[in-house]
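Comment thread on ticket #2218

A.B. wrote:
> Attaching the input chain for the structure job we discussed in standup.
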Amino acid sequence: MRRYGRSMEFNALSLDVALAFLDRFGVLVFAVSGGIVAVRAKMDWLGILVLSFLPALGGGTLRDLILDEPIFWLTDTTSLLMVLLGAILAALFTTRMEMSKPIRWADAIGLSLFAVAGTAKALGLGHSVTIAVIMGGVTASAGGLLRDIVANREPLLLKQDIYATAALLGGLGYAVSSRAGLSFEVCTLVGFSMAFAIRGCAIHFGWSLPRPD
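C.D. wrote:
> Ran it. Output below, let me know if you need it in another format.
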Protein backbone atom coordinates (compact mmCIF):
# COMPACT_ATOMS: atom_id res chain seq x y z
CA MET A 1 0.00 0.00 0.00
CA ARG A 2 2.82 2.33 0.88
CA ARG A 3 4.55 1.71 -2.45
CA TYR A 4 1.29 2.25 -4.31
CA GLY A 5 0.71 5.53 -2.51
CA ARG A 6 4.15 6.79 -3.39
CA SER A 7 3.60 5.80 -7.00
CA MET A 8 0.35 7.75 -7.14
CA GLU A 9 2.06 10.79 -5.63
CA PHE A 10 4.89 10.53 -8.16
CA ASN A 11 2.46 10.26 -11.07
CA ALA A 12 0.51 13.29 -9.85
CA LEU A 13 3.73 15.28 -9.49
CA SER A 14 4.88 14.23 -12.97
CA LEU A 15 1.54 15.30 -14.44
CA ASP A 16 1.77 18.70 -12.72
CA VAL A 17 5.29 19.21 -14.09
CA ALA A 18 4.23 18.19 -17.60
CA LEU A 19 1.20 20.51 -17.55
CA ALA A 20 3.39 23.37 -16.30
CA PHE A 21 5.79 22.77 -19.19
CA LEU A 22 2.96 22.76 -21.74
CA ASP A 23 1.52 25.95 -20.28
CA ARG A 24 4.86 27.75 -20.32
CA PHE A 25 5.84 26.67 -23.82
CA GLY A 26 2.39 27.59 -25.07
CA VAL A 27 2.74 30.97 -23.35
CA LEU A 28 6.04 31.59 -25.17
CA VAL A 29 4.67 30.66 -28.59
CA PHE A 30 1.49 32.70 -28.20
CA ALA A 31 3.53 35.64 -26.84
CA VAL A 32 5.61 35.55 -30.02
CA SER A 33 2.46 35.54 -32.15
CA GLY A 34 1.10 38.55 -30.27
CA GLY A 35 4.41 40.35 -30.51
CA ILE A 36 4.52 39.79 -34.27
CA VAL A 37 1.08 41.38 -34.61
CA ALA A 38 2.24 44.38 -32.55
CA VAL A 39 5.42 44.86 -34.59
CA ARG A 40 3.43 44.58 -37.79
CA ALA A 41 1.11 47.31 -36.49
CA LYS A 42 4.18 49.48 -35.74
CA MET A 43 3.47 49.61 -32.00
CA ASP A 44 6.02 50.72 -29.41
CA TRP A 45 7.55 48.41 -26.79
CA LEU A 46 4.59 48.78 -24.44
CA GLY A 47 2.22 47.81 -27.22
CA ILE A 48 4.39 44.79 -28.05
CA LEU A 49 4.32 43.69 -24.40
CA VAL A 50 0.55 44.11 -24.14
CA LEU A 51 -0.15 42.19 -27.34
CA SER A 52 2.28 39.48 -26.24
CA PHE A 53 0.54 39.23 -22.86
CA LEU A 54 -3.04 38.90 -24.14
CA PRO A 55 -2.82 35.74 -26.28
CA ALA A 56 -0.24 34.15 -23.99
CA LEU A 57 -2.16 34.49 -20.73
CA GLY A 58 -5.70 35.56 -21.63
CA GLY A 59 -7.11 32.13 -22.46
CA GLY A 60 -5.60 30.43 -19.42
CA THR A 61 -6.84 33.25 -17.20
CA LEU A 62 -10.42 32.85 -18.43
CA ARG A 63 -10.16 29.06 -18.04
CA ASP A 64 -9.02 29.35 -14.43
CA LEU A 65 -11.75 31.86 -13.63
CA ILE A 66 -14.43 29.56 -15.05
CA LEU A 67 -13.00 26.53 -13.22
CA ASP A 68 -12.70 28.56 -9.99
CA GLU A 69 -8.97 27.79 -9.82
CA PRO A 70 -6.09 30.13 -8.85
CA ILE A 71 -5.01 32.07 -11.94
CA PHE A 72 -1.87 30.26 -13.01
CA TRP A 73 0.43 33.19 -13.81
CA LEU A 74 -0.16 35.02 -10.51
CA THR A 75 2.03 32.49 -8.72
CA ASP A 76 4.18 31.48 -11.69
CA THR A 77 6.60 34.26 -12.57
CA THR A 78 8.14 32.01 -15.22
CA SER A 79 5.05 32.56 -17.37
CA LEU A 80 5.59 36.32 -17.18
CA LEU A 81 9.23 35.83 -18.17
CA MET A 82 8.04 33.76 -21.15
CA VAL A 83 5.83 36.67 -22.21
CA LEU A 84 8.79 39.04 -22.00
CA LEU A 85 11.00 36.64 -23.95
CA GLY A 86 8.33 36.20 -26.62
CA ALA A 87 7.96 39.96 -26.99
CA ILE A 88 11.72 40.38 -27.38
CA LEU A 89 11.99 37.57 -29.94
CA ALA A 90 9.14 39.04 -31.97
CA ALA A 91 10.67 42.52 -31.90
CA LEU A 92 14.13 41.29 -32.91
CA PHE A 93 13.23 38.93 -35.73
CA THR A 94 9.86 39.99 -37.16
CA THR A 95 11.25 42.92 -39.14
CA ARG A 96 13.56 40.53 -41.01
CA MET A 97 10.87 38.30 -42.47
CA GLU A 98 7.50 38.33 -44.16
CA MET A 99 5.08 38.47 -41.26
CA SER A 100 1.66 37.03 -42.11
CA LYS A 101 2.78 33.40 -42.29
CA PRO A 102 4.83 33.45 -39.06
CA ILE A 103 1.80 34.85 -37.20
CA ARG A 104 -0.46 32.08 -38.44
CA TRP A 105 1.96 29.21 -37.84
CA ALA A 106 3.08 30.45 -34.41
CA ASP A 107 -0.57 30.86 -33.54
CA ALA A 108 -1.30 27.30 -34.73
CA ILE A 109 1.41 25.86 -32.46
CA GLY A 110 0.18 27.87 -29.47
CA LEU A 111 -3.43 26.90 -30.17
CA SER A 112 -2.52 23.20 -30.27
CA LEU A 113 -0.48 23.35 -27.05
CA PHE A 114 -3.15 25.26 -25.15
CA ALA A 115 -5.93 22.97 -26.40
CA VAL A 116 -4.12 20.06 -24.77
CA ALA A 117 -3.14 21.95 -21.61
CA GLY A 118 -6.64 23.31 -21.00
CA THR A 119 -8.28 19.93 -21.57
CA ALA A 120 -5.77 18.14 -19.36
CA LYS A 121 -6.23 20.61 -16.52
CA ALA A 122 -10.02 20.29 -16.55
CA LEU A 123 -9.84 16.48 -16.67
CA GLY A 124 -7.35 16.53 -13.81
CA LEU A 125 -9.85 18.48 -11.73
CA GLY A 126 -12.45 15.78 -12.27
CA HIS A 127 -14.62 17.43 -14.92
CA SER A 128 -16.37 15.54 -17.68
CA VAL A 129 -14.97 15.12 -21.17
CA THR A 130 -17.43 17.69 -22.51
CA ILE A 131 -16.40 20.37 -20.02
CA ALA A 132 -12.71 19.52 -20.47
CA VAL A 133 -12.91 19.89 -24.26
CA ILE A 134 -14.68 23.24 -23.90
CA MET A 135 -11.99 24.42 -21.49
CA GLY A 136 -9.36 23.36 -24.01
CA GLY A 137 -11.10 25.47 -26.64
CA VAL A 138 -11.34 28.45 -24.28
CA THR A 139 -7.67 28.19 -23.32
CA ALA A 140 -6.60 27.94 -26.93
CA SER A 141 -8.73 30.62 -28.55
CA ALA A 142 -9.81 33.28 -26.03
CA GLY A 143 -6.39 34.93 -25.78
CA GLY A 144 -6.03 35.19 -29.54
CA LEU A 145 -9.48 36.75 -29.72
CA LEU A 146 -8.41 39.43 -27.22
CA ARG A 147 -5.19 40.04 -29.17
CA ASP A 148 -7.02 40.58 -32.43
CA ILE A 149 -9.66 42.86 -30.89
CA VAL A 150 -7.04 45.09 -29.23
CA ALA A 151 -4.97 45.16 -32.44
CA ASN A 152 -8.10 46.11 -34.41
CA ARG A 153 -7.80 43.01 -36.60
CA GLU A 154 -10.56 40.72 -37.78
CA PRO A 155 -10.46 37.94 -35.15
CA LEU A 156 -9.24 34.61 -36.47
CA LEU A 157 -11.81 32.94 -34.25
CA LEU A 158 -14.68 34.53 -36.18
CA LYS A 159 -13.37 33.78 -39.66
CA GLN A 160 -14.74 31.00 -41.80
CA ASP A 161 -11.49 29.03 -41.87
CA ILE A 162 -11.05 26.35 -39.20
CA TYR A 163 -9.64 27.77 -35.94
CA ALA A 164 -11.46 27.06 -32.68
CA THR A 165 -12.77 23.83 -34.22
CA ALA A 166 -9.17 22.58 -34.45
CA ALA A 167 -8.67 23.30 -30.75
CA LEU A 168 -11.89 21.51 -29.80
CA LEU A 169 -11.02 18.44 -31.86
CA GLY A 170 -7.49 18.37 -30.47
CA GLY A 171 -8.88 18.59 -26.95
CA LEU A 172 -11.30 15.78 -27.77
CA GLY A 173 -8.42 13.65 -29.04
CA TYR A 174 -6.57 14.19 -25.77
CA ALA A 175 -9.65 13.48 -23.64
CA VAL A 176 -10.60 10.27 -25.48
CA SER A 177 -7.00 9.03 -25.32
CA SER A 178 -6.86 9.81 -21.61
CA ARG A 179 -10.13 7.99 -20.92
CA ALA A 180 -8.72 5.02 -22.85
CA GLY A 181 -5.93 4.82 -20.28
CA LEU A 182 -3.05 5.93 -22.51
CA SER A 183 -0.04 7.69 -20.98
CA PHE A 184 0.08 11.46 -20.65
CA GLU A 185 2.80 11.65 -23.30
CA VAL A 186 0.76 9.69 -25.84
CA CYS A 187 -2.40 11.66 -25.06
CA THR A 188 -0.50 14.91 -25.49
CA LEU A 189 0.93 13.76 -28.82
CA VAL A 190 -2.52 12.70 -30.05
CA GLY A 191 -4.22 15.94 -28.99
CA PHE A 192 -1.47 18.24 -30.24
CA SER A 193 -1.12 16.41 -33.56
CA MET A 194 -4.86 16.51 -34.23
CA ALA A 195 -5.19 20.21 -33.46
CA PHE A 196 -2.06 21.21 -35.35
CA ALA A 197 -2.79 19.03 -38.37
CA ILE A 198 -6.32 20.40 -38.72
CA ARG A 199 -5.26 24.00 -38.21
CA GLY A 200 -2.24 23.53 -40.48
CA CYS A 201 -4.41 22.18 -43.29
CA ALA A 202 -6.76 25.13 -42.85
CA ILE A 203 -3.80 27.49 -43.28
CA HIS A 204 -2.13 25.65 -46.15
CA PHE A 205 -5.09 24.36 -48.11
CA GLY A 206 -7.68 26.96 -47.15
CA TRP A 207 -9.97 24.50 -45.38
CA SER A 208 -13.08 26.14 -43.97
CA LEU A 209 -16.34 25.27 -42.32
CA PRO A 210 -19.57 25.39 -44.32
CA ARG A 211 -21.81 28.38 -43.81
CA PRO A 212 -25.51 28.94 -44.50
CA ASP A 213 -26.23 30.62 -47.83
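A.B. wrote:
> Thanks. Noting for the ticket: The chain has one domain: 7-205.
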